[in-house]
Amino acid sequence: MRFFSTILVALRALRRNKMRSILTALGIIIGVGAVIAMVSIGNGAQAQVEAQIASLGQNIILVFAGSANAGGARSGYGGAGSLSVDDALAIKSQVRDVVAVSPEIRGRAQVLANGLNWFTSIAGESEDYLGMRQWPLSAGVDFTEQDVRSAGKVCIIGQTIVTNLFPDGDPVGKSIRIRNLPFTVVGVLTSKGFNLGGQDQDDIVIMPYTSAMKRFSRQTFLPVIDVQSASAERMANVEQDITGLLRDRHHINQERDDDFAVRDQREIAEARNAANKTMTLLLGAIAGVSLVVGGIGIMNIMLVSVTERTREIGIRMAVGAHGSDIRMQFLIEAVVLSLMGGILGILLGIGASQFFSLFYHWSVLVSTTAVVAAFVFSGAVGICFGYYPASKAARLDPIDALRYE
Questions:
Q1: What's the whole-model pTM score?
Q2: What does residue 139 show for φ and ψ, rounded to 5 degrees?
Q3: Which residue in 54, 148, 274, 356 has the fewest CB atoms around it within 10 Å?
Q4: 310/318 Cα distance (integer angstroms)
Q5: Under a CB-based contact definition with an 8 Å cutoff, are residues 186 and 172 in contact?
Q6: What are the Cα distances from residue 116, in Å, to 61, 140, 163, 348?
Q7: Would you tell me how many other CB atoms lie within 10 Å of the CB of residue 292?
Q8: Residue numbers in the chain where pLDDT is lower than 50
Q9: Which ranges of 187-322 does DSSP label H, i.e. alpha helix?
């Protein structure tokens, strides 16, 4: 019973100084709000990266050509002509647990149809590509293995191409011109929207890689080979087998480095998430400083409160209150201030996250764990920074307190 009466006394004391209580809790409000907002934005960015990697398809391994070195200027992976179509065919036929392979050629060009034009991405792929990417068609059919063998002038287009070049009808069966060469549209991709880098995935024309090499890019080498493993469990073995096969085909001895790179989805996701995690931790740490500053503010105000209410403390002790009651009263006041700031800070953080999502189109993901942790931490701040003022109040001598003016 004494505990509940102590809580009521503490709440009445806070209510008597509403403005001071709100200003004291402001540091906690800002700190918790900043932590929730930063973690939500970081989680959203990580989820978006994972979704983008998943859009590559299941169990995908990417084989990149090596870097080129011309006159001391070095390019990144994919710059050297170290991968060939024969390498891709060898991977498909000789590496166990490989279910699909797509040699890849990329470029950009002006596309014309119906008196309209559009500058877009051109991708040369195999007939396995859409299945690997789990990218269904909304209309038409995929090009065939025969189209790949014959370097057929056929293509599949994204929804952005349809919108800009075929605003009045179905493009399937119609012709588009790429560098003055006619290509027949055989299929239309379902929409995927923008990726993490802000690129429109629907702004693309996909054709057989043989057509891209012969009629578009004039390249004789491959910058990238997409490989699909039979299962996630076999991906490590498939990567090792691909590395061994390509080293053997490229006559690379033990003293020489690979002239290619093999990467799987997990490695790509980890590389892209590393920067996001670092930034989230940095911003979260900065926001955490606000919580500590808020805790110091609570301690300062509680010490002032002890001084202001010295006579009140002496009267309570004179009528029978114990030192533990006084300590509990001031500790409850500190915890209530901190938890009140934590609750308002959580609401502020969620609101700020939704603001960024709505007006800046950032991907945000509010974590229940972060909300609970912020609430618990704000309570811990109240206990840690409120204990010293509460103990100081409990140690006051009743006679000296009653004499205090």
A1: 0.62
A2: -160, 150
A3: 274
A4: 12
A5: yes
A6: 38, 22, 11, 49
A7: 14
A8: 1, 68-74
A9: 209-211, 235-249, 265-308, 310-318
